[in-house]
Amino acid sequence: xxxxxxxxxxxxxxxxxxxxxxxxxxxxxxxxxxxxxxxxxxxxxxxxxxxxxxxxxxxxxxxxxxxxxxxxxxxxxxxxxxxxxxxxxxxxxxxxxxxxxxxxxxxxxxxxxxxxxxxxxxxxxxxxxxxxxxxxxxxxxxxxxxxxxxxxxxxxxxxxxxxxxxxxxxxxxxxxxxxxxxxxxxxxxxxxxxxxxxxxxxxxxxxxxxxxxxxxxxxxxxxxxxxxxxxxxxxxxxxxxxxxxxxxxxxxxxxxxxxxxxxxxxxxxxxxxxxxxxxxxxxxxxxxxxxxxxxxxxxxxxxxxxxxxxxxxxxxxxxxxxxxxxxxxxxx
Length: 332
Ligand SMILES: Cc1cc2nc3c(=O)[nH]c(=O)nc-3n(C[C@H](O)[C@H](O)[C@H](O)COP(=O)(O)OP(=O)(O)OC[C@H]3O[C@@H](n4cnc5c(N)ncnc54)[C@H](O)[C@@H]3O)c2cc1C
Known about the structure:
Elements: E1 2-6, H1 10-21, E2 25-29, E3 41-46, E4 49-54, E5 60-61, H2 65-76, E6 80-82, E7 90-93, H3 97-105, E8 109-111, E9 116-121, E10 127-131, E11 134-139, E12 141-144, H4 148-156, H5 160-167, E13 172-181, E14 191-195, E15 198-203, E16 214-220, H6 222-227, H7 233-247, E17 256-267, E18 276-278, E19 283-285, H8 288-291, H9 295-315
Parallel strand pairs: 1-2, 1-12, 2-8, 12-19
Antiparallel strand pairs: 3-4, 5-7, 6-7, 9-10, 10-11, 13-16, 13-17, 14-15, 15-16, 18-19
Helix pairs in contact: 1-9, 4-5
């Protein structure tokens, strides 16, 4: 069968891996210009030099047995390294977080920079996807692997129950500040947790294989971000820089450049389901919003959906395994 997947983040790529292993064809569509999704890394050309900053997930934890096994395999392939400074279960993509997604995505046909704006099902039961690059199809099955709010419009036309479930998931935003300095900050610690509005701030120097000038990412907490979600990035960046300066107890900062990035659908607590699959329509949904708010939850959901779809196609019986649940634990 040929599957179309909307999104090419970690959940989508994990689902694609399961489907491919069972002999199915997969094509993925992602609006991003570059791979990453919410595990993105932004390249910045500043007057102090070029640098790449992980402005989505700064790292990820591997807690459950299955995900730990997958991460161990990635480590052997040179995609990730453990990061003891981030915690006992913390891992990093190398040379940056987006590289992990890019290297996983290279295994599949992914149409980057392609915004999917609709999907239709024809009289023969085939799916067709429409995008800003034109139509794609026919496809036997379609999967949404995007945040819940972005999945609802796709699901609502075909499966009201799935759309109702997705509507119940509420994402929280996260403002991220990306700051580059002329000189290294004389900071006592290169990682700051829960200080003022800061949920997490990390200096590139705290991570292996990051090169370029002194660079910090500052993630604001959900309450602070929610209260300012509609403000302009130019107004947010100075606030996050001031929060970093205060957290590091620095009287002055060296010359710097900075921007703020709004993650409107950064995280949601999960709804206690691993994945959604309608075997008659061959329509499914996966993503971290089903299982929890961590990268491991995205992986768990993508794997669960792949296995669920394969089991119904093979035997007509949906099989949901116990280990399809994520050991949930928020990243903030
Ligand atoms: C600021 C921040 C910090 C985080 N920190 C951590 C952390 O410390 N530890 C941790 O474990 N997790 C962390 N996370 C969470 C982690 O990044 C996510 O759980 C994981 O990346 C979600 O993967 P996903 O595949 O479900 O969704 P995404 O990665 O969001 O993938 C969805 C993809 O769909 C694409 N898309 C959406 N709509 C369309 C459309 N209409 N057409 C085409 N493409 C579309 C997007 O471009 C995106 O690439 C963090 C997330 C953020 C934002």
